[in-house]
């Protein structure tokens, strides 16, 4: 998506350790108008899939999932998996361990069983896809629930990290709006 | 807001310890259509305020803030304060300690200094207001930045916890879409 690529070129910062910092519009400050355009793009891509729920994980996936869900037919609800346990959370959850490179620690990703059903047709949405740990966790939760995963929508995929290509080779319908294939000396190269 | 009160009556569960569980539509599963109506209500309430940014805190405030921001003039961006430090986060942050009763622990609420400016006219949005710890943290961050807080928009206020009335007595323009004044034997009483 050209608009997103231009935004990344303009505002993205490449930091040591293959970090692409895009918190001026994606995951700290949120450019809501750009998110609307991204949401419409996902709705177009997955319009044939009769999505019943959009699944993401807290915290940075929530804004994109919530805005995107508005553009789908039949008002799919957004379900966000949790990373930490609240005192008032039911113990009746699906769960899977996920390692976060951004925070350098493992967490337990959970969703309440009553909200993820065998009849659900799921679109997974997240802001970033690198090695694929978070998306893999969401796929495992859907597997536990017996829900059907109809697609994966990502804003920015770090193509050189391999997660995206692994999901494609497994047959998933993955739509990444911008795929960064290299960050050489601060220059960002997008996949064509 | 009648629609929200009806939803709380229908789907809310009162648990021991004055817990009101509304995760079937507010803070785990998200009813996007209802959130749109809440967002429009905030836009109407604060339309005269020339809001430049909508400020919230991860994770459960993000969906409401993002959807609400779409209905304001001049596309205000959403800024969400963080509760835990990512490895790629700048150290140049405003910060304040906040105690979470939901998780029974203290955390450091932060925003990057470059995204909260003295020229900003801020609308604070959150899904829940009880004793007011999270909103108070957001107010402190705005104070540190010299930003102007023009209003506070809340989905559900637990009126009997006192946080909301304290902010009102301090002169804040607080709009809570549903105020729960009592939860007696499981019966929910709304403020008129």
Summary of the model, kept short:
With 192 residues, chain A is α/β, with parallel strands linked by helices.
Structural account:
- The structure is a homodimer of 192-residue chains.
- By secondary structure, chain A is of the alpha/beta class.
- The first copy, chain A, is built from five helices and eleven strands.
- Chain A has a six-stranded mixed β-sheet, sandwiched between helices.
- The termini of chain A are close together.
- Strand 3 of chain A pairs antiparallel with strand 5 (77-81) of chain B, so a sheet runs across the interface.
Question: In whole angstroms, how far apart are the ends of chain A?
Answer: 10 Å
Largest interface: A-B, 45 and 45 residues
Structural class of the helix and strand makeup of chain A? Answer: alpha/beta
What is the tally of helical segments of chain A? 5
Mean pLDDT metric of chain A: 94
Oligomer state equals homodimer
- Work out the helicity level of chain A: 25-40%
Strand order of the largest sheet of chain A: 5-4-8-9-10-11
Number of strands of chain A: 11
Question: Taking Cα atoms only, what radius of gyration of chain A do you get, to the nearest Å?
Answer: 16 Å
Give the amount of beta strand of chain A, in percent: 35-45%
What is the general shape of chain A? globular
Order of helices and strands of chain A: HEEEHEHEEEEHEHEE
